[in-house]
From TrEMBL:
Entry annotated with the keyword Transmembrane: no
Keyword Ion transport: no
Organism expressing this protein natively: Cnuibacter physcomitrellae
GO cellular component labels: cytosol
Binding of S-adenosyl-L-methionine, residues: 16, 18, 42, 63, 85, 99
Protein's name in the database: 23S ribosomal RNA methyltransferase Erm
PROSITE patterns membership: SAM_RNA_A_N6_MT (PS51689)
A GO term for molecular function: RNA binding
């Protein structure tokens, strides 16, 4: 058996296998509350695959490490196992689940949020990413850009010793649900994303100052819009809730 994948070794592949039974059970319970076929990305050693297979639903498991495919197929004959890269594979199953390689968390999330075919995702990611995406301690630009169409929920921290080998940082269980009623029309998504990005990157000491620059509007108009959206003049972009972003966008384009 090859000791090294053609894609690289363990470090290049970000392979930290989940072995913590309570975390596996937590993820499986969250997936059980969803409906439809499941796609597991980064199946690795198959610990999570076994739990997902126990749900009795259609399950496809993918992994980039070709050395693990045969073992996964032998261990889980009822599961469709494919040698595939999550950065290229169609993420079009109704439910996406997986232990995401920490070094690929952001590119996988960005790709996932652009794909139209799924409804729910339950992911084990790097703790800081999970915390920030859920808006704990303040939102990020990526979260603000996606919030009108997706809900992010943090389901707890996973200590590094829950993995083998142990990574240098903890993980976090993050669920993402596509909103059935978007806060901003899908047809306006790209324009809204540019707006949210401009707000996060513009100079200013508070939303009143930032929006005056971004919108090129009089301060009096900006302050009125902020008041209507329930946002303080001195608030920062990271402080805004999803509905406040949507309200600002509606006021700006209305």
């Amino acid at each position: 058996m090859r000791t090294r994948s053609r894609h690289g070794g363990r470090h290049e592949l970000g392979q930290n296998f989940l072995v913590h039974t309570l975390t596996i059970d937590r993820i499986v319970t969250l997936v059980a509350a969803t409906d439809g076929a499941i796609l597991e990305i980064g199946a690795g050693g198959g610990a999570l695959t076994a739990g997902l297979a126990s749900l009795g639903r259609e399950l496809t498991a993918i992994d980039i490490d070709e050395r693990r495919i045969a073992a996964l197929r032998r261990a889980h004959p009822a599961v469709r196992v494919e040698h595939a890269d999550a950065l290229r594979h169609p993420l079009d199953s109704p439910v996406i689940a997986g232990n995401i390689p920490f070094h690929l968390t952001t590119p996988i999330l960005r790709r996932l949020l652009r794909r139209p075919g799924w409804r729910d995702a339950v992911l084990l990611t790097q703790w800081e990413v999970a915390r920030k995406r859920a808006g704990v301690g303040g939102g990020t630009m990526l979260t603000a850009q996606a919030a009108p169409w997706f809900e992010f929920t943090l389901h707890g921290r996973v200590p590094s010793h829950a993995f083998r080998p142990a990574p240098s940082v903890d993980g976090g269980v993050l669920s993402i649900t596509r909103r059935t009623s978007p806060l901003v029309p899908v047809s306006q998504r790209r324009a809204y994303e540019r707006f949210a990005g401009d707000v996060f990157t513009a100079r200013g000491r508070g939303m009143a100052s930032i929006l005056t620059t971004v919108c090129r509007s009089p301060r009096s108009v900006v302050r009125r819009h902020l008041a209507q959206a329930g946002i303080g003049d001195d608030a920062l972009p990271r402080d805004l809730a999803p509905h406040q972003w949507a309200d600002l966008w509606a006021l700006r384009t209305g």
